[in-house]
Specification:
This protein is mostly helical and 320 residues long. The protein contains twelve helices and three strands, in the order βαααβαααβαααααα. Helix 1 (26-53) runs parallel beside helix 11 and helix 2 runs antiparallel to helix 11 (273-298).
Length: 320
């Protein structure tokens, strides 16, 4: 079996089983996921539209927020419609190459989101520690370059995932107990050696998540030092309040990510498999849903921009 050509052991398609053991409840489970997806689409597309049309929001902080929203809405769209088709219409088949494409985009956009959060932390560091040089340091050219660098890093680190999966022979069936094509869920169907897949997965997690968390931690250490040294308590509160939305976004993103990571590796014997699947879906869907709400509630400029935009649209509509 191991000496056979791997291409002859490549399935034409995989079957995504959804949430194993809860097939009878798929319709009910789909409702909150569908609602969260609608909120994510409306919220993130609304933020992108607002930032692109409001002159007052044409600043580095909001450019990074628009990039985060674009990453979020693309990320959840890469798997939620397919998941809903599984739940609603029992359409569980996904072609092998389509599975690889979905896997690539899910992992690439997850890495991209982590990178954008890191860039937003550096933005807050420059804004608070070097306020007079903020506009000269974070020019539009610099923003484009760091955005492209973050995107390129995610793409280059995720391409090997696809190649590592494609090289494997599959002789353990084609049933994936998941709602989307996850790298290790697909690799475990192989009868080949997947040790390199496991090792590379850890390396990619360290190079992206570990590096980004390190940069975020250093940035906020410097921010806290700068804020503490401010003369008045009012100035301290005003400076740190500009970071609250970003801190909430970090918590929303990284807490489910770490929970998913550790339960997947260390809680396999104690946590039911369907709980793992729930966590994996929330890990991808929760940040796109909550980030626009957090920034809309906590950022004064976005609230004012939304009011101004709605007032303008109302005036245009009344003139017709």
């Amino acid at each position: 079996m191991h000496g056979a050509n791997s291409s002859s052991l490549t399935p034409r398609y995989f079957i995504l089983n959804g949430i194993p053991g809860l097939e009878a409840a798929h319709i009910w489970i789909s409702l909150p996921f569908c609602f969260m997806y609608i909120i994510a689409l409306m919220g993130n597309c609304g933020l992108i539209y607002l930032i692109s049309h409001e002159e007052a929001l044409h600043r580095p902080m909001y450019y990074f927020l628009a990039l985060l929203s674009l990453t979020d809405v693309t990320g959840c769209t890469s798997f939620v419609p397919n998941m809903l088709c599984i739940f609603w219409f029992n359409l569980k088949e996904i072609y092998f190459n389509a599975c690889l494409v979905q896997m690539f985009f899910i992992h690439m956009l997850t890495g991209m989101e982590s990178g954008v959060l890191m860039l937003m932390a550096l933005d807050r560091y420059v804004a608070i520690c070097y306020p007079l040089r903020y506009s000269t340091i974070l020019t539009n050219t610099v923003i484009i370059k760091v955005g492209l660098a973050t995107f390129t890093r995610s793409v280059l680190l995720m391409i090997p995932f696809t190649l590592l999966i494609k090289r494997l022979p599959y002789c353990r069936g084609n049933l994936i107990h998941h709602t989307y094509c996850d790298h290790m869920s697909v690799a475990k169907l192989s009868c080949g050696n997947i040790k390199i897949n496991t090792i590379y997965g850890l390396i990619a997690a360290i190079l992206i998540g570990g590096f980004d968390m390190f940069c975020i931690s250093v940035s906020y250490t410097m921010i806290i030092r700068a804020v503490v040294n401010l003369a008045s308590a009012d100035a301290q509160h005003k400076a740190f309040s500009t970071c609250t939305s970003h801190i909430c976004a970090i918590v929303i993103t990284y807490v489910p990510a770490f929970f998913n990571f550790f339960t997947h590796r260390f809680g396999r014997c104690t946590i039911p498999h369907h709980v793992h699947i729930f966590i994996a879906n929330l890990y991808l869907l929760l940040p796109p849903t909550l980030n626009p709400i957090v920034y809309g509630v906590k950022t004064k400029q976005i609230r004012e921009g939304m009011i101004k935009l709605f007032s303008r649209e109302k005036d245009i509509f009344s003139m017709r």
